Amino acid sequence: MAGISSLGVGSGLDLQGLLDQLQAAEQTRLTPLTAQKTTFNNQITAWGIVKSSVAKLDAAAQNLQKANEINTTAVSSTNKAFSASVSASANPGSYSVNVQALATGQISQATIGSDKNSNVINVADGATTLTFAPNTEDGKEVKIEFEAGDYTLEDVRNKINESKSDVSAEIIYDAQGKGYLNVSSKSTGEDAGFTVQITQENAPALPTRPAPEGEEEAPYLLNEIVANLNDPASQRTTAADAVIQVNGITVTSGTNTFKDVVDGVTITAKEVSPSTGEGENKIFEAETLSITKSTGDLKAAIQAYVDAFNEVQATISNQTKFVPGKAGEELSSSNGDLMGNAALRNLQNQLRSQITSSQEGAISTLNSLGIKLNNTTSTGGSVLKLEINGATLDKALADNVDGVINFLVGDGKTTGFATQSANQLKSIMDNSTGVFKVQEDSLNSMIKRVERSIENTTSSIEANLERTRIQFEQLDRMMAQMNSTSAYLTQQLASLSAQTKQ
Fold first, then answer.
1. What separation in angstroms does the CA of 110 have from each of 80, 94, 422?
2. Alpha-carbon distance 199 to 214, whole Å?
3. Bridge partners for 492 per DSSP
């Protein structure tokens, strides 16, 4: 008898429909498991959102921990001959400043010129050394070797530049295309000055240029170029320090920048001040540099910490919120993914306890700065939020900025509000033992267990369905055989009955 190709064909029963119903019923076993996995994944996402907000608080705390490095003064004057900037160590004050000279480097330009690419420089037999010697003990001496032969100006320029010394070389061309070697120091100041020296191996004296033959001029010798560069007439700019006067005191610098002439103040010379008179009688016009108290940067850092703390509190409130529903109804989908999470509540309490901590000194609490914890209402319920009384904070900064800094920084290790907050947050954010790492690892472990349960349940469902399908196929075949036998017997009985009547 041929096999049954489709369930129910042999029996006439809706066995495929029954199998589909069984499959649908079996699949419901997966529903709570997939729901669990979704819940755990949502919780991982929620912890990530909280971590992001806590990271902002961590950054704000670290910045506030360095309150002693935040400027509490600012340049309030507008100056023409110079500009100024301040660091945290600067104090308020006024200073008379003039600029008498800007820093320059040495520029020497040979007056001996040559046509481009022509071999105009000759190095006589024997290795020749070109030495750029500094004019001061602090300078750096550089030696450049030349083998015997003919060189173009470009060759000499390239060898100087390839030496990576403190000088650079260029060629300046005039209207007729004749080039002149230009050598300049890379830095400025008196220490940047140099002279060029030349020595030749195994030569008692440097050679002299031969007389011209006919109309063709003999190539210049390298030592002629060197002598030309050292000629005072070839110096286009002399290496010199910048010079300024601060309250009548003359100060020099190898650059146009003067650091800590006044503690915590950097002055940059921009142009020479106007002057009257000549020589020793020259008088430079002074400008007033004003440094005034400015606590704006410190106040902004405090505000940033407050804002970051409030963001953390709002984020936690949103992730733990409970939206009441009617009796007998399912929990609202608007509930926070971390509703009732003990670890998150503990984190919130830790952060709040730091806010109310006290320190030694005239300013001992945030309350002393006009910063208080107040209850506010949000969609997630009551939320504790830091609020600043601007007038109180401004007065504390104006009257005792050093006390504010001491309250925030302490010893920078274990005391000080911001120091302790930064230490606490470092522990919370630790990538090995911090609460975020622990929660993430725990949830990932639970997800793996649920995935194994889903895999096992899926295998069980498939086995049950396969077993039932086989049983239905057997039933279908048996019913088909019974129907076939019944039809045969009915046919035989009918035939026998017909024969009897005859």
1. 36, 47, 63
2. 31
3. none
What the block records as the tokens of 215 is 């109309």
Other beta carbons less than 10 A from residue 392's beta carbon:
15
Each residue's pLDDT tens digit, 186-198: 999 999 999 998 8
CA–CA separation, 170 and 184 (whole Å):
8
69 backbone φψ class: left, alpha, beta (φ>0; ψ -120 to 50): alpha
pTM reported for the whole predicted model: 0.71
> What's the confidence (pLDDT) of residue 204?
46
Q: What residue segments make up the domains of the chain, in order of their start?
A: 31-68+296-440, 73-102+241-293, 107-237
Sign of CA dihedral 79, 83, 88, 90: negative
Length of the chain: 502
Cβ atoms within 10 Å, residue 353: 10
Please answer whether residues 317 and 383 qualify as being in contact, where contact means their C-beta atoms are separated by less than 8 angstroms.
Answer: yes
**Lookup: tokens for 334:** 């608007």
pLDDT at 3: 44
| Burial of residue 487 (number of CB atoms within 10 Å: 0-12, 13-18, 19+) | exposed
The vertex-51 CA angle with 50 and 52, nearest 5°, equals: 90
For the chain, count helices (H), then strands (E).
Answer: 10, 22
For residue 330, the one-letter residue type is E
CB 8 within 8 A of CB 16: yes
Q: What is the 3-state secondary structure (H, E, C) of 240-301?
A: ECEEEEECCEEEEECCCEEEEEECCEEEEECCCCCEECCHHHCEECCEEEEEEECCHHHHHH
DSSP string of 344-408, one letter each residue: HHHHHHHHHHHHT---SSSS-SGGGGTEEEEEEEETTEEEEEEEE-HHHHHHHHHH-HHHHHHHH
Instruction: Write down the residue that tokens 């929990």 correspond to.
Output: 331
Extended strands (E) in 22-156? 73-75, 82-86, 93-101, 107-115, 121-123, 128-134, 142-146, 149-151
Name which residue leads in pLDDT, 143 or 140: 143
Residue 71 DSSP one-character state: -
Nearest residue to 156 via CA among 198, 203, 207: 198
Q: Count other Cβ atoms within 10 Å, centred on residue 208.
A: 10
